[in-house]
Inverse folding.
């Protein structure tokens, strides 16, 4: 079983309370996702405070303008330290995303660890090499730019 793991880090010049409030709120996902993905939360709980066991559903168009349904579960939450979302239904064979927050001298060091297995076995591994891994990196690079604009003014 072949998986890909991507690690992204950035420092946000803000206090942990404000960073946590923004990052742990499902409603802010749309703001930090590239527009071309047509990301839309379809569950009614996007304005709720995140909690372990929370299920969030989305529509997203990651490739070729084909809409896909995606369902994630928030499996772990330690307030102002980390949370984990895992795919329950969606485009990947497996998706596990750790969001880690650490106070630092400049504000908050934020780390994303994204681990996934593409769908369709050998075809998925080839697709991952050709474009999926690049697309996932592009999404998180976009997220970094948006968060820099919000917190590193």
């Amino acid at each position: 079983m072949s998986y890909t793991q991507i690690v992204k880090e950035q420092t946000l010049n803000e206090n942990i309370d404000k960073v946590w409030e923004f990052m742990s709120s499902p409603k802010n996902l749309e703001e930090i996702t590239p527009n071309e993905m047509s990301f839309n939360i379809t569950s009614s709980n996007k304005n709720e405070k995140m909690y372990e066991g929370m299920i969030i559903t989305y529509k997203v168009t990651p490739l070729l303008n084909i809409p896909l349904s995606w369902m994630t579960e928030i499996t772990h939450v330690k307030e102002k330290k980390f949370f984990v979302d895992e795919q329950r239904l969606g485009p990947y064979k497996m998706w596990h995303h750790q969001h880690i927050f650490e106070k630092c001298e400049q504000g908050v060091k934020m780390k994303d660890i994204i681990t996934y297995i593409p769908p369709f076995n050998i075809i998925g591994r080839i697709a991952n090499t050709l474009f999926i891994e690049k697309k996932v990196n592009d999404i998180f690079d976009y997220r970094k730019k948006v968060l820099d604009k919000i917190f590193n003014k």
Summary: Residues 121-151 form the longest helix (31 residues). The two ends are 43 Å apart (CA to CA). The chain has one domain: 4-151.
